[in-house]
Amino acid sequence: MSFSSLLRATPRLAARAAPLQAARQSARRSYASAAPAPKAGGNGGLLFGLLGVGVVGGGLYLYARPDSDDARTVKDAASTKEVDYQKVYNAIAESLEDEKYDDGSYGPVLVRLAWHCSGTYDKNTGNGGSNGATMRFAPEANHGANAGLEHARNHLEKIKQKFPEITYSDLWTLAGVCAIQEAGGPYIPWRAGRKDGDVDNCTPDGRLPDGDKGADHIRNIFYRMGMDDKEIVALSGAHALGRCHADRSGFDGPWQYSPTTFSNEYYRLLYDDKWQERKWQGPPQFENKSDKSLMMLRTDMALTTDKEFRKYSQKYAKDEQAFFSDFSKAFSKLIHLGVPTTQLSEAVPLKKTEDQAPATA
Ligand code: HEM
User: Fold this and answer.
1) Which atom of ligand 1 is nearest to the CA of 300?
2) Catalytic annotation on 255?
3) Is residue 306 in some structural domain?
């Protein structure tokens, strides 16, 4: 067994050995973070319905006037063929578990792909967002923040070959929904209709957050998308899933003890354990005092130190239902950012496999 596959197979060992590995690889990609200044009350936007679930997207009206010189224009036509999205969902669900990959599931990295393809949205210009699936192309695929997401894209390529009629942008967002729901998370309203763009639609680097910064940085990034403080804190709870990889972001380790289960444990740990700066040669991050096997980013810690953020993180630590409800709305909003309402279908019911009749599951 090679060193890296041994690390993957034994997460706890990975958490311990990674400083060495990180130092050796010195692989931290820089996350440019030149986000525009936040606008006062920056969660403005147009309201559109999602079968009763409010989804806010800014600047959507601009899509009514396509202009070939405008990065907002998505050039490829979406498939007109009918797609059985539940079948696609089930195929993804079936593909999630893999003992050889990370903590045994592709789910977390699929959630990160759905978030990174959507979180590029800029409400002021209307460009970016999940419409387009532009991370298929360099330069966006090579942006530091997207390091490691080729694992998710390559994994989903097999599903795309099975269901060629679904667009990549629908597939990536649906996969994020599937991964959250199958990990025990809440139902997430999802609508179909995203179109795949081309390389001209790639967004500039620096639109996604950098883990070694504080509350101001987080707000700059998320307010630009049209998100507010409650949504920022709720969305950050996705760090219940997965881990940091020294050879991707430079950070290292999981946030919680069961990184393939979606729960509010992330918030509970933020308050129930004690956190100290980890002394190592990698980028600044925190470790839990009790057994040093878990990590938090500076941005995670900001959810407890910033007064506004603290209100929500404390609430979610105590009340998982409140977290699930706010997360579902915020994640649904995230994965529809930048997609013109005129393109979108009604919400597509996507059942968890455990809730399907045995015949269809
Ligand atoms: C302040 C905001 C955020 C920062 C700074 C941040 C930063 C990071 C970093 C550094 C990683 C490790 C990547 C790697 O090394 O593989 C990561 C992983 C992850 N992030 Fe975030 N993130 C943020 C918000 C979010 C949001 C909003 C979501 C989803 C709603 C999310 C979902 C995930 C997931 C699921 C992983 C684990 C991926 C895996 O295990 O492969 N993050 N994040």
Assistant:
1) 1
2) yes
3) no
What is the Cα–Cα distance from 185 to 183, expressed in whole angstroms? Answer: 6
**Contact of 322 with 316, CB cutoff 8 Å:** yes
| pLDDT 10s digits, 291-350 | 999 999 999 999 999 999 999 999 999 999 999 999 999 999 999 999 999 999 999 999
- Report the number of distinct structural domains present in the chain: 1
172, 190, 255, 275: the catalytic one is 255
CATH of the domain at 169: 1.10.520.10
Mutation pick for ligand 1 pocket among 4, 112, 224 (CB with most ligand atoms within 8 Å):
112
CA neighbor of 125 nearest in space, from 71, 64, 169, 53: 71
Note whether residue 199 is domain-resident: yes
pTM of the model: 0.82
Contact between 303 and 270 (Cβ < 8 Å): yes
Q: How far is the CA of 236 from the centre of ligand 1 (A)?
A: 8
Residue-range definition of the domain harbouring residue 339: 39-235+243-252+328-355
Range in 57-66, 197-206, 234-243 with the lowest mean pLDDT: 57-66
The Cα-based distances of 81 to 74, 167, 172 in angstroms read 19, 11, 18
To the query of whether residue 116 is one of the catalytic residues in this protein, the response is yes
